[in-house]
Amino acid sequence: MKRLFDFTAALIGLIVLSPVLIxxxxxxxxxxxxxxxYIPLRVGKDxxxxxxxxxxxxxxxxxxxxxxxxxxxxxxxxxxGRTIRKLKLDELSQLWNVLVGDMSLVxxxxxxxxxxxxxxxxxxxLLTVKPGITDFSSIVFADEGDILANSxxxxxxxxxxxxxxxxxxxxxxIENRSFLIDLKLIFLTVLLAIDRQKALNxxxxxxxxxxxxxxxxxxxxxxxxxxxxxxxxxTELVTSRNL
Length: 243
Known about the structure:
Layout: H1 2-32, E1 37-38, E2 41-43, E3 49-51, E4 54-55, H2 79-86, H3 89-92, H4 95-100, E5 104-106, H5 113-116, E6 132-134, H6 136-140, H7 144-147, H8 154-176, H9 179-194, H10 196-209, H11 214-221
Parallel strand pairs: 5-6
Antiparallel strand pairs: 1-4, 2-3
């Protein structure tokens, strides 16, 4: 049922949104006359690589510096790219990945192998399902770029401030997933673009209803400052991405 819903919704979404995506692609191409698509490798279900389709929001070859986490004031982001990121158009293009079966509409966000190689045994559970366009953490940490703004090392700050919660929220989703929860998360992802606080309140209420740990419910409200945490299954902070 999930695959049928994913396929149907992705097909309809691509048809309806194709004019917007085509205009965005033309705008990206006109700024530097380079490929408007960015097709990076991500790690999917069963730790298999797949090519994720994104509208390019950065300068060409931006990933050659091997910095994977992006702050809102990252100098690699282009002028058109800032609008693309603000409107989440780079995420909508991933409907193609949903259509062909690499991803689901709802599921843990896919990551680069440099990050998944750091996963603890507990976090490996995130790689037992198809990654998704949205989930609990996508709503809670929609402002990831702002969290990392002015960071001296965005990748380490991501691993200390965001990864612990994103991983726990992803695992909680896997352990409690259902078609109804997927529908609610899709609705709240749309609501996020209209009223972020209402979306956050609704996510925290969902987590509380599903009897999530109190600290997950609290972080979903995003009313307190994030502090460094070890990822689930670890006892020490991540201080290096060198294995």
